[in-house]
Amino acid sequence: MSEQSAAPRKAIVATGEMKRLMSDHFLSLDQAKKEGRPKVAWCTSVGPAELLHSLGFLVYYPENHGALLGATRMATDFIPVANAIGYSPDICSYLTADVGAYLKGQTPLTNAYGLATIPKADVLVYNTNQCRDVQDWFAFYAREWNVPLVGVHTHRNIKSVKEHHITDLATQIKQMVPTLEEVSGNKFDVDRLRETVRLSLECTKLWRQVLECGAAKPAPFTFFDATILMAPAVVLRGLPEAVEFYKRLLQELQERIEQGVAAVQGERHRLYWEGMPIWGKLRNLSDLFSSLHTNIVASTYCNSWIFDAFDPKEPFESMARAYTELFIVRDESYKEAYIRDWARTFAIDGIIFHDAKTCPNNSNSRYGMPQRMSEGLNLPTLVINGDLNDLRCYSEEQAKTNIEAFIEQLDERR
Ligand code: SF4
Description:
Blueprint: H1 14-35, E1 40-43, H2 49-54, E2 58-60, H3 62-71, H4 75-83, H5 93-104, H6 108-113, E3 123-127, H7 133-145, E4 149-152, H8 163-175, H9 177-184, H10 190-212, H11 223-229, H12 231-235, H13 240-259, E5 269-274, H14 282-291, E6 294-299, H15 300-303, H16 315-322, H17 332-345, E7 350-356, H18 369-377, E8 381-386, H19 396-413
Bound molecules: iron/sulfur cluster.
């Protein structure tokens, strides 16, 4: 894809502010490990982070580290190191890249922020709402460091969220409190939890509004921008910094819409991306789509950090609901209706499904969904085979050929 030429783009100014926030986040984790306080909790990306913040933990997200390993293309070197100790090449390549990097004593945080190592966990907190891999991933570190491992087991593949799901999940979250109090050295305070949930709610509302800017024609950002700009919604939700950041970003995007600033010059086609990003190929794919005057304006992946259900009045129950209503937790019929809604609202011309080899949980092309969506919406669909991190599963030439043919098909339909 090296010869493709994409028109120059007007940079999103808020990206600079986001880089500073991320740097502060990692430097504060590093400082905490040097000083022994505050304690550091590792949390899955759609886990009960609000509870951890309310107990005074600094929160670290290994999936964010996994994505960094992918984006820096270090992952492919480290995956075989984890394979060598028995972690299969077929399981989550965030897990294998992260464990492999740990075993090699390396991290992209060194080049990016000057950290010598990843911040060691004082406690590991998972939620299986995404997959079982996160539990096994955290269990590796619990054995390695002899630290507590606690978690929430979410009901999966559900059509609608029922009261008994919420009661169960809220109880499971509450049951983690004694362990977390002991590790943090702080007493649980429901008012602090309410405040954290309130901040997460504000963050998530703003993030939704940001993503909804993609409905504008032309769209002011691309899916590839959003995979970067979502970082504060993942790692800083529950903190005031995330709220302030998304207020500024939203304002900037609204100004771009008013001024007609297009993220893709001469936007001709608008696509939906279903599935994980291919982290090591973000730039190449962004340039390819730009050169084809095609913008990916909406995605399931970036929407995964919209949690409409947060409610400070019912902090445990609303966390349980927010982390269960997720797309990834739901059955095929829910997922199809969800994509249909977004496709209509965003005036989508076609849908790309990324079948990520090591993440069946975020690959929705394996049970006939592309064909059903194509018929139901009268829209072309394309399945790209690849992976989030393991670039051995991705053929750049094959993907380019398929994408170009897909765009020609869209051109013919116009
Ligand atoms: S959902 Fe997929 S990418 Fe995320 S942790 Fe699980 S297997 Fe890995």
